[in-house]
Amino acid sequence: MKRFFISVFISFFATLIIGAQSPEVVKAGNILDKVSEIIQSCQSIKADFTFTMENTQADITDSHEGTILIAGDKYKASVMNVESYFDGKTLWTYLKEVDEVNISYPDPTDETTLSPSNIFSIHKNGFRYIFAGEDVIDGQKVNIVDLFPEDRNKPYSRIKVYVDEKTHYIKKIVQIGKDGNNYMIDINHMETNIPYEADMFIFDPANHPDVEVIDMR
Predict the structure, then answer these.
(1) pLDDT in tens, the chain (217 residues)
(2) Quick check: 15 and 32 in contact, CB under 8 A?
(3) Which residues make Cβ contacts (< 8 Å) with residue 154, sequence separation at least 6?
(4) Residue 64's closest CA among 106, 139, 9?
(5) CA–CA separation, 131 vs 23, rounded Å?
(6) pTM exceeds 0.90, yes or no
(7) Which helix (H) or strand (E) holds 51?
(8) Starting from the edge strand earliest in sequence, which strands make up the sheet with 74-79, in order?
(9) Which of 63, 64, 54 is nearest to 175 (CA)?
(10) Structural domains present in the chain
(11) What gap in Å lies between CA 84 and CA 159, rounded to an integer?
């Protein structure tokens, strides 16, 4: 479950695609294009978020605070006692509870391991979208876009994306699961163009002398 976070995060943000030209589709496309334009113009993005897993059938809700820093094709994410480091080539997944780090080369064509740094470029295929109305989050008006995967075998039926009307930042994302499991990300705070150093995206075993290294490259 812990390692599943990055996959969910990526799926949530896979939101931009060109579709049919009904008014609702056109409006949704314009909203998502603006999100992409603004995000891709930033040198770096840092977000504090709440990641929630909800099982509607069992009436279970489990929430966790997390952070992510993205700079180009690099990122560092932390949630549920798991830290992920990606320097553009190598991925380190550090499981803090067991003091273990897994090292791998992610497959860029694999949706479940695709870097969050690429989440705004995987929108070219795979989804249909439509404008689904408006709402208010933290006193701010948001536009809602519903996305539907063209692949009927996906474990979710749709993704709801809530976009701040003024800033064009994503405020919330909800993935509706076919099995009753829903995943939500509430973005509590986001900053852009944050200073960073290249070594922030590399796991340094020297800082964890007792860590067990599992190299899967």
Answers:
(1) 555 555 555 555 544 444 446 899 999 989 988 888 888 888 999 999 999 999 988 889 999 999 999 998 899 999 999 999 999 999 999 999 999 999 999 876 555 444 555 455 444 457 888 999 999 999 999 999 998 888 888 888 998 989 999 999 889 988 899 988 999 989 999 999 999 999 999 999 999 999 999 999 9
(2) yes
(3) none
(4) 9
(5) 9
(6) no
(7) strand 45-55
(8) 127-137, 140-149, 156-164, 170-177, 181-192, 45-55, 60-71, 74-79, 82-86, 91-95, 100-104, 212-215
(9) 54
(10) 4-215 (2.50.20.10)
(11) 24
Instruction: Return all residues near 97 (Cβ < 8 A) that are at least 6 apart.
Output: 81
CA–CA separation, 183 and 129 (whole Å): 19
For residue 17, how many other CB atoms are within 10 A of its CB? 19
Number of alpha helices (DSSP H) and beta strands (DSSP E) in the chain: 2, 12
Under 8 Å between Cβ of 88 and 213: no
Q: For the CA atoms of 37, 43, 48, 54, what is the dihedral angle to 10 degrees? A: 50
Q: Is the dihedral of CA 40, 41, 44, 46 positive or negative?
A: negative
| Residue at token pair 């499991």 | 181
Task: Give the residue carrying structure tokens 């995000």.
Answer: 39
Give the whole-angstrom CA distance, residue 141 versus residue 212: 47
